[in-house]
């Protein structure tokens, strides 16, 4: 009810206080003087009436400027006809010219110049032909020219001032709009960057969780299956298997707590534990069981943490896929070649290879590709023509680094796996396997196998991703 209390006044444009004051002062000061030449006292009423027509429309000079111009033009024309001399109310004309230029756009504002030019001609003609003027014709012409210049200048100068001020206001508004658009674009770009960062962080966290959980659970399952078989043959040896299971579980819990701590803690509060690197690969391979063998060639270099973590995760994921998909009788060789400008990783097994089925996940291989690509390296993944599966990655180094002072000792196996190229691969890698002898037919670690450490009878859970294995 309160919103419609005064429905008839809705949309009515009331004059501003400044316009009211200007109109009152100008009307009181100029409208009642009549004909300034006082040549026709009988026409004073017409002079006052037309003067009011020139001053009172100033009330709507901002709200309805074209209506003001129409009324003032008619009043001025009537004054030229009815009053033989000029009146003081003509001081309203410059105000009208300024108001039209200030508040009207484009060609419509030039109407005041047309009206002013007509008035600047008719007014002086009427005044110089006043019956009270006694000068010669040449004097009349000179006076007409002078009065025309004065009248036209009184219209043109205020018009130019009003147009300049209007153009300045329009330019300022354009600058303000441009600033608002730039600010909105900045907010949009910032939101896009935030979404992109959020997506990248989610992918990084998912990749870390996948690498840690999948590998740890695979090692635990393999060791548990092996321990079950060992318990029936050599109960005294089960303690070592249980220790490996416990250690792997503790490491997985530590990694999980680290990741969760980063997610929950605020800036500067997270506990950033050292990430695994090249020096941690031997321990990780050893915990995977005696079916996985490590061979290295060259000195372990000092590399950036990101490169070391990438190499570790690639080996970890490849070993995890081997444990899950290669089969209980398969064996795996992890070969690492440290060169001055390149690290080459080759993880090859003699398992089921292309025979493995696909579980549709594919997160592990995708994570490896993302990590290697981020380091500017290349990766080849696929089954071997002779059976089995191979992952081969190359990580470039920015410069040559000295050997790592704490390089762990890595035992050298007595047998090697025969080198064969993958039958389906994404990239072409080097043809030689670091630390191997071409032509050896034995599988890694085969001569070291004893009855006390039988292979795990784990039931395989297979999938195939791009002709290979992935979890």
From TrEMBL:
SUPFAM superfamilies the record matches: ATPase domain of HSP90 chaperone/DNA topoisomerase II/histidine kinase
Organism this protein belongs to: Propionibacterium cyclohexanicum
Catalytic activity: ATP + protein L-histidine = ADP + protein N-phospho-L-histidine
Protein name listed in UniProt: histidine kinase
Segments of this protein annotated with the region Disordered: 398-471
Coiled-coil intervals, chain numbering: none
GO MF, one example: ATP binding
Enzyme Commission code: 2.7.13.3
Histidine kinase/HSP90-like ATPase domain: residues covered: 310-398
GO cellular component: membrane
